[in-house]
Amino acid sequence: MKISKPITLPCSVTLKNRLVKSAMSENMADNHRPGSRLLNLYKIWGEGEIGLIITGNIMVDKNELGEPDNVVLEDDTHIADFQAWTKAAKAHGSQIWAQINHPGRQAPAAISKTTFAPSPVQLKMGAMGFRIPQALSENEIKDIIQRFANTAALCKLSGFDGVQIHGAHGYLVSQFLSPIANQRPDQWGGSIENRMRFVLEIVKAIRNKVGAQFPIGIKINSADFQTGGFSEEDSVIVVKALEQSGIDMVEISGGTYEAASMTGKDVKESTRAREAYFLPFAEKIRNSVNLPLLLTGGFRSSQAMNSALDSGAVDLIGIARPLAMEPHLCRRLLSEPNARCDLKPVKTGIPMIDNLGILEIGYYSLQLKRIADGENPDEHLSPLLAVPLLGLNYTSGILNSFLKKLNLNF
């Protein structure tokens, strides 16, 4: 089976197989550093024969968080904790990359004093806990670029085998790429060449810090799936530029908090049958670039994974939510030609909550906590238990809107 074959990246690093644990939100940091729960969770994943493990968000600034219990790496104060984390994950031969990120306007008001973005454009769901952001100044943009580079260098010192820039799902890099979120009149906005300047400068700054042999990847949207937003045509241009910049791997995803396509929301049944949500875009972009492509979203069976690899459209298979329900799934995928792992829909019965992809973040975070605490995932766990994880302000906004829909005045 092709999923079991090794692959060598442009920087000459070889992964032992084609299976990648894609990033998921853990919400388990211990005062923003990895504690015993994260070590245990990643140790268990490492036992499952995964070729590459990509962490959940590691933020580049402790004052700019996407979730209350994000890991943050901005200095070497707790470097020993990070080294223990990478050691646990790599004990059985897996590699581990750090996903590094800045939330931009997706920093909930409940946990951030200020919110910054390319332009003062609020999320459509702003009334549910997100501020109108302040537009970043030129100096602030340059500072964030260096923060990404600094965090990448600290990741290398911590024993991570590479880093992945989070450039998808509506976070800051994605905001710069989006003509909706980025309405700047200067060199950082306007044309796609200007809008992609931010991410290209981040790649350049990281490479200067970590050297030529340390892998740098990026997660990028195939599209934002919003009218007037970041399009597939934009994405092709950006990925071609990233290849020229010396990136080692591109992970293809799609959607934002406002249009949660990465969770399978509104995916056509014909696409769902192929399992890979964004495979058509991967097939399209393969004609333009030669760098390794990682495809995440929808894979449930070894047959579909091998089929995608055999097509030549992609080189690596990303798995996320199935590994929250079966942490050693990769071992089974590698040994059983007909292995599969189906997931139940995450539904509360409250449409305003169910239509938000962020609900799944909370639900699968609960499953990850069970694994970290030595328990088995629970497929019967009520999604309602995940609602408090969305944040007090955010949850209150949802419930208030829901009550108004029902004309309940309290």
List SSEs in N-to-C order: EEEHEEHEEEHEHHHEHEHHEHEHHHHH
How can the largest sheet be summarized? 8 strands, parallel, barrel
**Which stretches are low in confidence, meaning pLDDT under 50 for 5 or more residues running?**
259-265, 392-410
User: How large is the radius of gyration?
Assistant: 20 Å
Describe this structure in words.
With 410 residues, the protein is an alpha/beta fold. It has a single domain (2-341), classed as Aldolase class I (TIM Barrel). 37% of the residues lie in helices and 13% in strands. It is built from 15 helices and 13 strands. The protein has helices spanning 36-46, 79-90, 138-158, 172-177, 192-195, 197-210, 232-245, 269-274, 279-286, 302-310, 321-325, 329-335, 351-354, 358-372, 392-405; strands at residues 7-8, 14-15, 19-21, 52-59, 71-72, 95-101, 116-117, 134-135, 162-167, 216-221, 249-253, 293-296, 316-319. An 8-stranded parallel beta barrel has the order 3-4-6-9-10-11-12-13, surrounded by 7 helices. It is globular, with a radius of gyration of 20 Å. Residues 259-265 and 392-410 have low confidence and may be disordered.
Structural descriptors:
TIM Barrel, 410 residues, alpha/beta, 8-stranded parallel β-barrel, 15 helices
